[in-house]
Amino acid sequence: MSGLSDLLLSWLSAGGVFLGWTACVLLCLGGLLLAVFSISGTWLVLAAAGLAAILTGPAQFPGWPVLIGMTAVCAAVDIIEWFAASWGVRRRGGSRAAGWLALLGTILGAILGGMVVPILGSLVGMMIGSFTLVYWAENRRLRHTAHAAHIATGAVLAAMSVLILKVLATSALTLWLAAGLLL
């Protein structure tokens, strides 16, 4: 009887490890998919790295230094995201208020757009929201529609730059994790 229970425990253990690695792969793929839609997927890759650390043990890759490095990358991407729209507006000559409105428009647009069309709507909504609020503020301030549109376009270009940053950062973290585990 103990042979059968040992065999069953061995199968359950192997099944759990398989499910754990499957979860790591799915978290990385999910992170990449989210990054394409301008949702921070870096944190999912960090979760995959944390799970991989549990599966491999404390002396193996990824250890604490890798997890801390990945956390720093995740935090940096999010901090850049929060200030990119304001930076894009200010770089094109917009006011400080328009910079804050770009951030507010990004958040509101992502929420409202995500309610209308899940996932893809948040990407389109954040661009429309930031452009609209910045354009409104700068058109009221300058009374010149072409210059207000030029400034508002800075918010949209910054949002597109952040999208590229998210995809690159998520891809880099995924490759870092995969290379460290496979090599």
Explain what the structure shows.
Helix content is 87%, strand content 0%. With 183 residues, the protein is mainly alpha-helical. α1 (2-36) runs antiparallel to α2, α3 packs antiparallel against α6 and α4 runs antiparallel to α5 (120-142). The longest helix is centred in the last third of the chain and has 38 residues, at 145-182. The protein starts with a helix and ends with a helix.
Summarize, please.
The protein is an all-alpha fold.
- Largest β-sheet summary: none
N-to-C span: 41 Å
The number of helices is 6
Level of helix content? over 70%
Could you tell me the mean pLDDT?
89
Spans of at least 5 consecutive residues with low confidence: none
Shape: elongated
Instruction: Determine the strand fraction and express it as a percent band.
Output: under 5%
Q: H/E series, N to C?
A: HHHHHH
Say how many strands there are: 0
Radius of gyration: 22 Å
Question: Which structural category do the helix and sheet elements fall into?
Answer: mainly alpha
SSE layout and pairing:
Elements: H1 2-36, H2 42-56, H3 64-91, H4 96-116, H5 120-142, H6 145-182
Identify the notable features of this structure and list them briefly:
single chain; 183 residues; mainly alpha
